[in-house]
Amino acid sequence: MRLALFTDTYAPDVNGVARTLEKWEHFLRKKNIPCLVFAPNPAAAAQRESSPFVERFMSMPFVLYPECRLALPNPIHMRRALEQFQPTLIHVATPFNMGLCGVHYARKHNIPLVASYHTHFDRYLAFYNIHWMVKMLWRYLEWFHQDCRRIFVPSASTLHGLAERGWDEERLSVWTRGIETKHFHPIVDRAALLAEQDIAEDQFVVLYVGRMAPEKNVDTAIAAFAKFQREVNQDAVFVLAGDGPQMQQLKQQAAREGINTRFLGFTGMPKLQQWYAAADVLLFPSPTETFGNVVLEAMACGTPVICADSGGVVDTVNHEWNGLLCEPGNADAFCEALEQVYLDEELRKRLVARGLAHSLRQSWETIFEELLSSMEQAALQPAVNSLIRHIGR
């Protein structure tokens, strides 16, 4: 198998999709399976050394996700690279410019095509006041994926949601997410880390990790923590790790609420692992996740999790077994969950133990072996009969 991977986000972009695809490419190379990635140039601030395994193209920020890039492909450059590489399978990971190039090339040259579905973009639209585009977006996504012999999704809930929309369930497969326990673990010098932010070791630390963006509902987390600090624990501290378009707005909200916060900005490894392990609880209110990598990472670091009862997170978190689930957008419910974790030491210990046990079973090696087998099978399947002809066919 010779795999050409087309994606509009790739390392060094900082998001779950980019990191997952980078791990997938590394796994294939370790298995001596040729893989060539077609991706946008990263933002100037995140430049990385060139790689012989990645073909880069000019790009500009994507309006719904400024940390990602929309590629401006050079057709001549791309065609030469593909003719030299001679792919036997094309994998499209995003439904935008680079993904369109992959679909077009696969269709034109009769190369087997598979896709991975990573993001509920339709759920983002309402947060950006463009919900009127939902029907148009779904028509486009259905058109984009129609030639794919297999569509890999991050969770069973995502699969069921797409099947309910009429997508062919026989072509849908779960590609779950794993964890590298050598990187994410409970070991940390808590006192030293907290001292860096002028936090006492005996203070109750609530952590949020993720983008500072509307679709993540960070404002709900701040409102919930504000109520928790007023009514339950005045010495609690809310630490937020991440960056994004809502950063200043959220800082202003925290100032209005008068709560004790630390906005860390973008936090990479190994510091991110240390904050996971040092925190008393992860508060993650995002209702739009197809999986929610940060939840599994927190579990692996021995931190109990409180999440929105929505999206792919529910496939990782079993309520009151290895975490707590709350009604999306309900700050009172998240506050009550914080109070539970703070006051009930036995509950906290159970959530930690079961979360750790769950994370230890999520091996990337096993997951990628299963994915590789599924892709090899897909390459041998008959082509999908498309109802709509692709451009350039």
TrEMBL record:
Domain Glycosyl transferase family as annotated: residue spans: 194-355
Lineage top rank: taxon: Bacteria
SUPFAM superfamilies per UniProt: UDP-Glycosyltransferase/glycogen phosphorylase
Gene Ontology molecular function, alphabetical: hexosyltransferase activity
Protein name, UniProt field: Glycosyltransferase family 1 protein
InterPro entries membership: Glyco_trans_1, Glyco_trans_4-like_N, Glycosyltransferase_grp1
Domain Glycosyltransferase subfamily 4-like N-terminal per the UniProt entry, residue ranges: 14-182
Regions that span the bilayer: none
One Pfam entry name: Glyco_transf_4
Keyword vocabulary terms for this entry: Transferase
Keyword match Transmembrane: no
